[in-house]
């Protein structure tokens, strides 16, 4: 197999990338100057050593010393609310909007409708553990901030079902974002105003 084919196969693992797009990426790189390609290769190989995953919220952040908890989890954020989002880019959108001052948890994806083993698709066990730990810190509300599409709805229903025994035992409320998010919207594409509105109208 040529380097062209093997690199294209590597690109095909990227979300939403098919054979043709993967090949286009390879030919794009071949047309660039060597400096660009070297820098890109260096950035990719450094990624796993410079970035680490927070043991508390599970988002990726720049590694600092030997700590395992990110700056957002250790700063003096409001620990009475925990916002559950699907992925890192959703976390970034909410952060950027400046409309939320509490804690976060990255679910790690959504559950495809009719999935046979839903628990394996998201961080179910880790979320339960996080809630147990956070209740000692004064947690009173969990905000499910998932996308307004069929997969987001399915995931929200599953998470509600899994969490409710624990949350009712702990006296923690679960809320969901208001329908300020129009149907089909992914959280990461929502602008600041829409997010603020959806947060204000949660229930
Ligand atoms: Zn964190």
Automatic annotation (TrEMBL):
Q: Which domain of life is it from?
A: Bacteria
Q: Does the keyword Zinc-finger apply?
A: yes
Q: Which GO terms describe its molecular function?
A: DNA binding; zinc ion binding
Keywords of this protein's UniProt record, alphabetized? DNA damage, DNA recombination, DNA repair, Metal-binding, Zinc, Zinc-finger
Gene Ontology terms describing biological process: DNA recombination; DNA repair
Supply the InterPro entries for this chain.
Answer: DNA_Rcmb_RecR (IPR000093), Rcmb_RecR (IPR023627), TOPRIM_dom (IPR006171)
Indicate the family of this protein.
Answer: Belongs to the RecR family.
Q: What is the protein name given in its UniProt record?
A: Recombination protein RecR
Protein source organism? Candidatus Yonathbacteria bacterium RIFCSPHIGHO2_02_FULL_44_14
């Amino acid at each position: 197999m040529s380097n062209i084919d093997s690199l294209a196969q590597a690109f095909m693992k990227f979300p939403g990338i098919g054979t043709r797009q993967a090949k286009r990426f390879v030919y794009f790189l071949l047309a660039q100057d060597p400096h660009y390609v070297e820098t890109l290769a260096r950035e990719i190989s450094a990624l796993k050593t410079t970035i680490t995953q927070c043991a508390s919220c599970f988002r990726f952040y720049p590694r600092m010393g030997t700590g395992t908890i990110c700056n957002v989890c250790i700063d003096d954020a409001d620990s009475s609310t925990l916002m559950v989002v699907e992925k890192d880019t959703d976390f970034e959108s909410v952060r950027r909007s400046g409309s939320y001052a509490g804690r976060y948890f990255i679910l790690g994806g959504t559950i495809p409708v009719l999935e046979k083993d839903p628990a394996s698709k998201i961080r179910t066990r880790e979320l339960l553990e996080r809630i147990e730990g956070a209740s000692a810190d004064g947690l009173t509300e969990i905000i499910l901030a998932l996308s307004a599409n069929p997969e987001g709805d399915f995931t929200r229903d599953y998470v509600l079902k899994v969490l409710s025994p624990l949350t009712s035992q702990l006296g923690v409320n679960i809320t969901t974002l208001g329908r300020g998010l129009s149907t089909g919207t992914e959280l990461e594409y929502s602008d600041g105003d829409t997010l603020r509105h959806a947060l204000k109208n949660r229930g």
